[in-house]
Amino acid sequence: MMRPAQLGTTFSQLQCKYLGIDYREAYRQIATLGFDIVRLCAYWNEIEPQEGEYHFEALDWLLEATRKDSLAVVLAIGAKAPRWPEFHFPAWIEERHNTTQTSAPLDSDAGLAERTLTFIARVVEHARTAPNIRYWQVENEALNRLEVARRRYLSRAFVAREVAAVRSLAIDEQAVMLTNSVSMLPIDAGHDRVAFESSLAMADVVGLNVYTKVPLGPRVYLQPLPLYWCKLSSWRQKAAEQGKALWIAEAQAEPWEWNRLTATERLEYPSTSPTAAVALVTELAQRGFESVLLWGCEYWYWHRKQGSDTWWQAVTRLVKG
Fold first, then answer.
1. Average pLDDT taken over every residue of the chain
2. Least crowded by CB within 10 Å, which of 24, 75, 89, 175?
């Protein structure tokens, strides 16, 4: 077992709601695991449920809690944030704008683009003085067109506008992060490369989302070929040559099963297990990735509340190294 130099997780109050657990209680327990960094999510539908009415209670609570726990924070902002359904539009936005189109980027609707920029600016202005915010993640997998987001996407030009807006408002020493998915299908290699290179050009930190067993059907799973690992290695080298950091923003530590939002009936599934998750993080560390964020902390805590500590203990051992 090998621990990366910086180990963290993504915490989602939305995922806690899906699982029927209190996000404050869940966060307090997850914070005891001893992570170095946590990614939080500024969900548009939660923060601005009515136009111009901002509710920062949940985000403020989490920022204060992470400050007390001395956890560095990545704050994901924008229309697209971690966890399904990826684009977290308030109902009033969905009523006025086309938030489902796939034939053109969503930002081709000028009104939607401007409202997104307004929301981002409002969040940055509100939260930027939080002393533990180190990184602003602009959108999630901003330049990828994925089935999980129903093929909806944003243009590179618009993401560049978002990045510029965040840089103009952020406090000194706060960096900008962009994340990319990494396909295991060779046919997607060209798109992956373009998204990565665009992200590298715009951001200070690029995060890769690494899932190594994903469903193609009820009992069929896709797994990486050697070319996948070569791609990760070459990208790490390219980032280093440009003096930029390449992280693993999501390392699979929660099952991903066919047509399931969250698979909770068992401890282990074909897509992953506690043993497989530890092995993945160890391999990533051995391949030179110094910053890794585990995906699934709410899931581990949910199992713990059901009386099983298998996931919890595995992560605890991993954090301790």
1. 96
2. 24
